[in-house]
Amino acid sequence: MSLPNHFELLATNGAARTGRLTTPHGVVRTPAFMPVGTAGAMKGMHWREVRDAGADIVLGNTYHLMLRPGAERIAALGGLQAFTGWNGPMLTDSGGFQVMSLSDLRKVSEKAVTFRSHIDGAKVELSPERSIEVQRLLGSDIAMQMDECVRLSPDRSNHSITDIERAMRLSLRWAERSKRAFESAPEGYMLFGIVQGGDIPEMRHISARELVDIGFHGYAIGGLAVGEPQSVMLAMIEETAPALPADRPRYLMGVGTPEDLLEAVARGIDMFDCVMPTRNGRHGMAFTRFGQINLRNARHADDPRPLDEESEWPSARNISRAYLHHLVRSGETLGAMLLSEINVAYYQHLMQGMRDAIASGTFETFQNKTRAGWAKGDIPPR
Amino acid sequence: MSLPNHFELLATNGAARTGRLTTPHGVVRTPAFMPVGTAGAMKGMHWREVRDAGADIVLGNTYHLMLRPGAERIAALGGLQAFTGWNGPMLTDSGGFQVMSLSDLRKVSEKAVTFRSHIDGAKVELSPERSIEVQRLLGSDIAMQMDECVRLSPDRSNHSITDIERAMRLSLRWAERSKRAFESAPEGYMLFGIVQGGDIPEMRHISARELVDIGFHGYAIGGLAVGEPQSVMLAMIEETAPALPADRPRYLMGVGTPEDLLEAVARGIDMFDCVMPTRNGRHGMAFTRFGQINLRNARHADDPRPLDEESEWPSARNISRAYLHHLVRSGETLGAMLLSEINVAYYQHLMQGMRDAIASGTFETFQNKTRAGWAKGDIPPR
Fold first, then answer.
1. Contact, B344 vs B35, CB < 8 A?
2. pTM of the predicted model as reported, rounded to 2 decimal places
3. Is residue B140 helix, strand or coil?
4. What is the topology classification, in CATH, of domain A27-96+128-273?
């Protein structure tokens, strides 16, 4: 059954696309990067700063939120947008990926995943139906189907073709169940299916085709950025994106570096999420048009210059490298706070640059200029 | 030698006073509470939030800053105001108190305190002259003389009259040396002397009299809030404040709870500093007109109400107790960030209330109303 389409494609430039996705809590400009507010909070940032940085939509983690404070509690408090005060569009993952990576004693069956909470050890069952129920209780604008993801490794030591096919087939059956469970959702809310299939083109084709047959509001590419080289990830996007309907949004899950975003948009991806801007910020790293800068480095200790005097983001333009270095070295929370907002703002600035370039048909020029800036590296020490 | 006076007394109400202290980086309205930005940063707060919360002046810790990033480095970067981006009035302590409480292998002699840095174990000497030099390098608007503080204890087990007198006399000799070292400071910058003398009225009288004879821009009362009961602290203020010149600012160091501030202002104190609003915020405690509220408490888990719907501070008025509870329980940085700003804003709100009440001659009414609010306690659970 075909589902209503809330995505409007505004322009394309090669395979790159720019558009608008309308959700119950507002419009998302694509290509969009979603900062990750794991447990209902963006680490080190106020929500007003996330908004100011240019983010239209953020991601919340179903696994964390269902365990604490609990989906029923959040629903009683008016949903995740009201609960957190973010009040904008929100996508939630299904919880499945983090069950696999964070919890102990997990057991995957056809029916559900059973696991022990990493918080209090309680035994919890997460089925595709319960995942959708939880995401509906959270009030998520975009819910994700539950799937199973196989971790890839550069030498294929960690995964077999049998594993990948089994997980891909299970994910398809869970996709059908997720869609049925989502039928009662009010108009405007969306459910995305997730293409699996590891690093095997044939599996990706099967997964994409069968998901499109089931029919979703949008489609995600899952099971990438889980240990494989970038070249494999890009090859899998090239295999998958053309198999997805051009009029629906495409979301590459858990990606990535600024370089990854540029390459993936060039291959037709519309949405991304990643903890990298905030996590690397907490570790003293800044993303800039000069590439990634390690503020722990002693070269910054006496440098009164800002990270980037031409940045549109005040903290990147006004605060000295010397001060950031001091904060990072001293373990001051303010260092993590400033670098998190600087990084989220840089990611959003990059997305805006891509959207503008695609709209004006200059995406390749933008790509080359952006790559050249990163390749040139940071300004020389004084 | 008398020093220029930068303090203007605007009104008194009983012993309570309100005024204006003009520093090279701006005007401080008194009574003033100085949030503590230990190592050049307010823990969990952006400087813009400290300003928005209503703080005119903040305190920096000489001990921390001289060890990292170093006073000479901060001077080369334009001073602490430019380095941090706070850009407003700043008071620094002498470093002596934290040498005593934080460093190992300290040795106090007539000449100086020698200690090992808690950061890298380096041997450092801090004399009254070096303390002033460091504070001048930092660009502090108000420098403090170096002194020695004896920790008090309710049962007097920890301190003897001999100890207290010896430390008080040493502090007076260091006061003279500090003043000489400060002579070259440009006009407008200030040096405060510190009254010592433990919990012995006679010692406080001697210390105050001799400091006034030396002559400072302002006077601090030190060696309180170091373990003694509140009644002893208030008694010592009552002994000391009248012995200080009425036209100079009086600063009670390291104090305190909102109750302490109210009582001390009633006894003629003009300035305070304390880590309590930010430290307690990091531990899940909120200061409000209902008293102190522990957000870890399960009673808040389902409570959609804000901490105080009549607060002037947006986060105290708009964010639910349920969300704050969740953030605190989850160890999310945002919880500490929000409670720190809420607490600093409450402290500033309290100071503004006191300033207004003194100016309008209604301080006693304000005191009674404020105490009644705290005594009544938090709003009942729903």
1. yes
2. 0.97
3. coil
4. TIM Barrel (3.20.20)
How near does any CA of chain A get to the CA of B164, in Å?
Answer: 35
Across the interface, of B46, B77, B333, the residue whose CB is closest to A320 is B77
| Residue B308 annotated among the catalytic residues of the structure | no
Please provide residue B274's backbone torsions phi and psi, each rounded to the nearest 5 degrees. Answer: -170, 145
| Cα–Cα dist B341/B338, whole Å | 5
CB-nearest to B332 from A39, A76, A302 is A39
Query: Is the CB of A69 less than 8 angstroms away from the CB of B322?
Result: yes
What are the Cα distances from residue B89, in Å, to A143, A307, B50? 50, 26, 12
Q: How many CA atoms lie within 13 A of B183 on its CB side?
A: 7
Mean pLDDT of A34-39: 96
- Residue B266 and residue B284: Cα distance in Å, rounded? 29
Pairing state between β A271-274 and A250-252: parallel
> Residue A56 and residue A26: Cα distance in Å, rounded?
8
> Is ipTM strictly over 0.90?
yes
Residues of A in contact with B73 (CB under 8 A): 301-302, 322
* Domain range annotation of chain A: 27-96+128-273, 282-374
Interface test with B, best of A117, A326, A344 (most B CBs within 10 A): A326
Class of domain B20-274: alpha beta
For residue A81, the chain B residue with the least C-alpha distance is B323
Which has the closest alpha carbon to B273: B290, B260, B291? B260
CA atoms within 13 A on the CB side of B39: 21
pLDDT, residue A50, reads: 98
Beta-carbon separation of A73 and B322 below 8 A: yes
